[in-house]
Amino acid sequence: MANEKMVKAITSMEEDFAKWYTDVCIKAELVDYSSVKGCMIIRPYGYAIWENIQRIMDDHFKQTGHENVYMPMFIPESLLQKEKDHVEGFAPEVAWVTHGGDEKLEERLCVRPTSETLFCDHFKNIVHSYRDLPKLYNQWCSVVRWEKTTRPFLRSREFLWQEGHTLHATAEEAKLETEQMLNVYAKVAEEYFAMPVVKGQKTEKERFAGAEATYTIEALMHDGKALQSGTSHYFGDGFSRAFDVCYTDKDNKPVHPFQTSWGTTTRLIGAVIMTHGDDNGLVLPPAIAPIQVVVVPIASHKPGVNEKAEEIYETLKKVSRVKLDNSDQSPGWKFAEYEMKGVPLRIEIGPRDIENGCCVVVRRDNREKIVVALSELETKIPELLKAVRDGLYEKALERRANMTYDVKTLDEMKKNADEKPGFIRAMWCGDRECEDKLKEICGVTSRCIPFEQDKISDTCVCCGKKADKMLYWGKAY
Amino acid sequence: MANEKMVKAITSMEEDFAKWYTDVCIKAELVDYSSVKGCMIIRPYGYAIWENIQRIMDDHFKQTGHENVYMPMFIPESLLQKEKDHVEGFAPEVAWVTHGGDEKLEERLCVRPTSETLFCDHFKNIVHSYRDLPKLYNQWCSVVRWEKTTRPFLRSREFLWQEGHTLHATAEEAKLETEQMLNVYAKVAEEYFAMPVVKGQKTEKERFAGAEATYTIEALMHDGKALQSGTSHYFGDGFSRAFDVCYTDKDNKPVHPFQTSWGTTTRLIGAVIMTHGDDNGLVLPPAIAPIQVVVVPIASHKPGVNEKAEEIYETLKKVSRVKLDNSDQSPGWKFAEYEMKGVPLRIEIGPRDIENGCCVVVRRDNREKIVVALSELETKIPELLKAVRDGLYEKALERRANMTYDVKTLDEMKKNADEKPGFIRAMWCGDRECEDKLKEICGVTSRCIPFEQDKISDTCVCCGKKADKMLYWGKAY
Predict the structure, then answer these.
(1) What is the pTM of this model?
(2) Residue of A nearest to B112 (CA)
(3) In chain B, where does the domain assigned CATH 3.40.50.800 lie?
(4) What's the complex ipTM?
(5) Is B111 within 8 Å of A109 when comparing Cβ atoms?
(6) CA-to-CA separations, B95 to A80, B98, B154, B437, B461, in angstroms, rounded
(7) Segments in chain B below pLDDT 50
(8) Topology, domain B11-276
C-alpha cells in the first residue's frame, strides 16, 4: 500500500529524532536547502504556514494598538556600537557589508541581527514631547546572525521574524507593555498553535544583550528538549540614554523615555513540528494549517462520486480552508501525502457513503474515523477542527506533565539530565556560579524563572545555600 | 487659520517639484531619513499604504494561481555569475558581504538585487518531470541596489518589492504568463490606484539584464516625467540552460523549461504621490488609503456633537476604513492635517448639522462639499469613495492627454523635450544608434513600444529612414 511506503520514507522519531525532524521538513515540502550555506528556502507549503502565523500575530498586534513600519536592513558599525552590552552580544555574529559595487565603503555596515539601534536612531528624530509617546511599532522582516551550525527553522543564518519596538513615558508603562506582549505570545501559542508554554523571566546570564529584563515562553518538544518560542525585553532607559532619545514632559523637563522590544520567528514552525508531529509526518493545528480539510473521492470512476466531492468542497469552502484532490493518484497515496503534510481532517467520499447520505471524516491527530451526515457537514467540520486543536493541546500538555521532573539535589539533577529528557524544576540561589556549574556538570541551561512558582525545597539545587526561586532547567534548541 | 499655515509648510509644485515631492513624503509622515545612507525608513502611515498595496496585489497573484515562497537574501558570487548578461547588469550595483563575525568568508555573497539566480538554483532541485510544471512563485522581500543618488520610494539602496518567478513547459505558456502579469499590474494601477498607464514592450537597450523581452507599464507624473511602474520579463530558456534546469517531457526527452519574472516595488507609492498629489499634500486613491474617511466634530463642546460623531464612526466602520478625530486640536488644524495625509473624504458634523439630520462630506480630490442625510451615510459613503476614484482617474487621464505630444522630426522632438514636459510619441526605425542619439540630443529615453500603435508618420524621427514602430519617449524617474 502506498500509504505504508510513504510512512517508511521518513525516519522514526525513536530511531533518530534529529533525522526525523529534517525528514519532515523536506518531505512535507516545507523547506529546501539552498546554495547559500546556513540559509534555507521556505517553500510554498511552509510559507503558507508562516503567512497564517503572521496574520494571527499581526491581528493581535494591531488590536493592542501597534503599527507596522520598515527600517533599513543595514546598521552602520558606529550605530551598532552605541550601546555597549548590545554590541558585545551581537558583533561576533553579524554579516558585514564592506563594498557597494566596486567601491569600498567608508564605514562597514552589518546586516541587521535585530533593530534596536535603528529604532532608537529613528525615535531620536521623531520623539520630542510627551505628546509623541507612546510609540508602539512592529516590523516584519528578515534578520541575519552568522551561526556555525544550522537547522531548518530552528537556527539559520537568515530567518524571518517580527520585532516589536516601543517607547514609553514611564518605566511602569514600558514594563506593562513587555508583560502584555509576552501574554499575547503565550495566548497565540496555546490557543492557535495548541502548544503549551511556560511563561517566565530569564536569568541575567540568559538575558538579551542590552536588556534589563527578558521574559520568555518556553515550550517542550517531543524529544524532551526545550524551545524558547518568543521573548519580550524591558530596556529601562539604557538605550534611550545611549542614543540620546529625549522628550519634554508636562512640566517642561527633559526625560529619557523607556523602551521594550519583543520578537518571534519562523522558529515557531519548528516548534509546531516538534510538538505535534509523529512518525507519519507533520500534524498541524487547524488555525495555521494551509489546508484544514482535504476531500478525497473514493472509487471516483463511479458515477456521481466526483460530483459529490465537488459539492462537499463548495460547501466547506464557506467554513474552512478546504482542498479537493481529484487527481489521478490512488486514495492510498493521497492519504499518506496529506498525513505527511499534517492536514487536520480528511474526508473520504465513495459510492456507498453517497447512498447513505454521509461521508467519513478522519482526524489526523488521533486517526479517529467519524461518520458524518452530508447535511450536517457544514456545522460539524468547524466543531471537529476545534476538537483537533483541543486534542492536540491536551496531548501536548499531558506529555509535558509526564516529562517534567522536580529535583532537589545536584545528583538528582545530573541523573535526570542524563537519563530523562524533559524539563527539570529545581530551586536556585540566584548565583551565576551555580548556573554555570549546572551547565558544566549536567549540561542544562536555565530556561526561565516561571511566573507560577512552586516551592520544591528551601535550598539551591547546586550549592545548597538558601534559595527561594524555582527555575525550569533543561537542554534546549 | 491653522489650515493655511499648514498649507504653506510645503513647497508648491510649481516652485520646485522635487522639493514638493520630498516635502509631501516627510510632512505626510510617509518616510523618515535614516543614518544609513540611501536607505529610507517607512513610517506607519507609509507602511499602511504598502500593506494595502500588498493585499490587493497578493490577492490577484493568488487568484492567478501563484504561491508565495522565501529565498535567501544572499547570492554567492559564483551563482550570480552563471548567467552572463545578468551578472553584467547587476554586479556593478550590488552590496557585498565579505565577513561573518570576525571571519572572512571563503566566497563573497551579494545581497540580492533580484532573485532569478536563486530561483533557478532551487528549480534545478525540484523540477524533474513535466508533472512538476508550471511553477508559479512569488516572493515579498527587500532588495538592495547600490544607487548613487537616491530619493524616497523612487530610488533607494534598499527597497521593498514583490518578484514573481515562474517556470513553464513551453515558450508559449511562459509568454502568456508574462503578458498576464503585465495585465494584472495595469489593472491594479488603473482600477485601484486610479493611475492610467501605457502598456508596452521595452526596446532591447532598456531590457532587463538577461531577458529576451521586457514589458512595462509607464505612468506620467504631474511634472511630465515618466515613471516605470511595473515590469514583466520573458527569459526564454536562457537561465534554465545556464543553471542546468531540465525536465523530462511526456515522451521522456530532456527539455529546458521556459521562464518569466515580474516585479513591482514601493516605487508605486511614489507614483501615486506624483500622480494625484497637490499643493495641499497627498491625495490617496481610496483603495489604498489607510484612512478612507475622517470624522471631525465641529464645536464639539456643544452637547450631543461627540456622541453623534461617535455614532457616525460606528456606522461607517462597517463600510470603510474610518477614523474619528475627537482630539483637542482645532477643526482647522484637523482639516489641514488630513488633507496633507490625503484622506479621500472628510465628514464635518456640528450642532446645526445634527438639527438638520445631516452632515457635510468634503472630497479631498476636488474639495466638493456634499450635504448628506445621516440616514443615508452608510450607502452614500461607498458611492462617494467610488466617485473619488473615478474623479482621480479622469483627471489623471486628462492631464496625460494634455501632456502627450506627437512629433515627426528631430527638431520637433528636441523642442518638445526642452519646452514641454510629458510623453512624446514618435516613430522609430529600430536602430540602437537612433535611440542613443535621441538620448544625447534630446535627453529622452524610450519608455516603451506600446501595444496600442498609432501611425504618426512613415519615417524614423531620428534618421528619417523607413519606420513602422511608434514609441513613447520621455524623461524618466
Answers:
(1) 0.96
(2) A36
(3) 291-386
(4) 0.95
(5) no
(6) 19, 10, 19, 32, 40
(7) 1-7
(8) BirA Bifunctional Protein; domain 2 (3.30.930)
